[in-house]
């Protein structure tokens, strides 16, 4: 489902980033140590090339640490690594801030599928002592365009609530048992509760994100009320700046100690023209896996053998993957029509509403290195971690990450330029042209 196509150059680059100057680390076996020259593996050809490059007779001699998270790790060969359910790293040292409706389900699945041990915060962040003072040293965070994420959250939550004459099973929070949560099987189960979110999305907004989006224009008489209503929608209620508060709030500059988080890894998802409109989210996450492998002392040969022996996904795991990577789609068993597209006025109003999110995205980009035409100012007095969110992997990864962030700004640049006047004026000029 997620092919791991990696070049030797990428492996070497990430090994260097992790501080390992040598690709052949000592691999302990009982009281002795076995060393092996790193195999020159071309991961573009993946399985066949790996099979040819690594002598299968030596596979059992290359040992890999297993379950360091449970104390003193044992050493196993690559085949046993998968058979015994081993994991790489310590759960407390790697954390994932899973931002809702930003591709986080995919990121989470890939990390787990490649046996990375990590701790997740979802649906909101946790700026606890483990993150600020240690032992957490690596933080992953998925980033999607703020307007796209808002619309996705609006449609997703609209889908999860039962509509009139809905044929799906009803799930009542705190009452229903033996039925999977609606977010895991939205085609079959929906929330039956009549809560504020459901009343807002179904009864007041009529499943139309434009109603709320256009009310968020700063000159709208309903702006204050609309801002309050955004807080009722799960995933949309937290902006990107809320997740980054601990590194962008000037009051928090001194709360991260030298033993706290040291690497902030942005996992971006963005449709780009040069990528045929396909996001590179899977590939970015796979690079994160490789970085974490290297940070935990694995060399090229160990990584190659782990990938070589990785079993194919079973149908059960594929099903779990689909549930974790849920999207805002509709079902034939609901009475909800296809999601209503966002109009240009709503897009403009949302872009300006999330202005600080776009300022944060611009702050992540290196000054003078990339073309950021969006007329928004950078955030000031941020932690240096913000400026290095794309600097954790190979140069190809870095450029891809920066291109995603830049694309987010380019797509909203016209609306973010307030010198053009109100959103109504900007959209009217677009229609005239």
Structural summary, described in words:
It is a single chain. The protein is α/β, with parallel strands linked by helices. 40% of the residues lie in helices and 9% in strands. It has 18 helices and ten strands. The chain has a four-stranded parallel sheet with strand order 6-5-7-10. Strands 1-2 form a two-stranded antiparallel ribbon. The protein has a two-stranded antiparallel sheet with strand order 3-4. The protein is globular and about 70 Å long. Mean pLDDT is 83; it is low at 1-50.
User: Strand order, biggest sheet?
Assistant: 6-5-7-10
Helix/strand class: alpha/beta
Strand content: 5-15%
Order of helices and strands: HEEHEEHEHEHEHEEHHHHHEHHHHHHH
User: Helix share of residues?
Assistant: 25-40%
Strand element count: 10
Number of helices, where a helix is a run of at least 4 consecutive DSSP H or I residues = 18
| N- to C-terminal distance | 44 Å
Radius of gyration: 24 Å
């Amino acid at each position: 489902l997620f092919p791991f196509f990696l070049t030797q150059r990428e492996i070497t680059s990430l090994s260097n980033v992790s501080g390992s100057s040598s690709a052949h680390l000592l691999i302990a076996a009982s009281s002795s140590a076995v060393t092996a020259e790193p195999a020159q593996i071309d991961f573009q050809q993946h399985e066949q090339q790996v099979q040819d490059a690594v002598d299968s007779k030596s596979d059992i001699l290359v040992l890999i640490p297993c379950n360091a998270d449970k104390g003193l790790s044992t050493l196993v060969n690559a085949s046993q690594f998968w058979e015994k359910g081993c994991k790489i790293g310590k759960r407390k040292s790697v954390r994932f801030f899973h931002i809702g409706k930003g591709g986080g389900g995919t990121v989470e699945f890939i990390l787990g599928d490649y046996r990375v041990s990590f701790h997740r915060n979802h649906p909101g962040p946790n700026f606890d002592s483990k993150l600020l003072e240690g032992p957490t040293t690596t933080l992953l965070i998925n980033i999607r365009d703020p307007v796209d994420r808002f619309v996705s959250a609006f449609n997703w939550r609209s889908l999860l609530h039962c509509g009139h004459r809905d044929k799906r099973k009803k799930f009542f929070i705190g009452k229903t048992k033996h039925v999977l949560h609606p977010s895991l099987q939205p085609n079959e189960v929906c929330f039956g509760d009549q809560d504020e979110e459901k009343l807002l999305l179904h009864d007041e907004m009529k499943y139309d994100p434009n109603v709320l989006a256009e009310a968020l224009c700063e000159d709208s008489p309903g702006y204050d009320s609309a801002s309050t209503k955004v807080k009722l929608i799960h995933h949309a209620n937290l902006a990107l700046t809320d997740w980054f508060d601990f590194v962008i709030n000037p009051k928090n500059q001194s709360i991260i100690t030298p033993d706290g988080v040291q690497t902030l890894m942005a996992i971006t998802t963005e449709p780009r023209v040069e990528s045929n409109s396909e996001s590179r989210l899977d590939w970015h996450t796979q690079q994160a896996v490789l970085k974490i492998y290297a940070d935990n002392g694995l060399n090229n040969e160990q990584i190659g053998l782990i990938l070589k022996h990785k079993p194919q996904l079973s149908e059960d795991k594929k099903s779990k993957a689909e549930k974790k990577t849920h999207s805002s789609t509709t079902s034939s068993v609901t009475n909800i029509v296809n999601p209503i597209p966002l109009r240009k006025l709503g897009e403009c109003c949302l872009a300006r509403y999330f202005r600080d999110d776009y300022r944060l995205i611009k702050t992540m980009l290196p000054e003078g290195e990339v073309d950021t035409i969006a007329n928004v100012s950078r955030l000031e007095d941020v932690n240096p971690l913000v400026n290095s969110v794309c600097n954790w992997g190979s140069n190809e990864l870095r450029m891809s990450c920066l291109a995603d962030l830049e694309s987010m700004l380019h797509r909203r640049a016209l609306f973010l330029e307030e010198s053009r006047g109100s959103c109504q004026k900007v959209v009217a000029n677009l229609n005239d042209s």
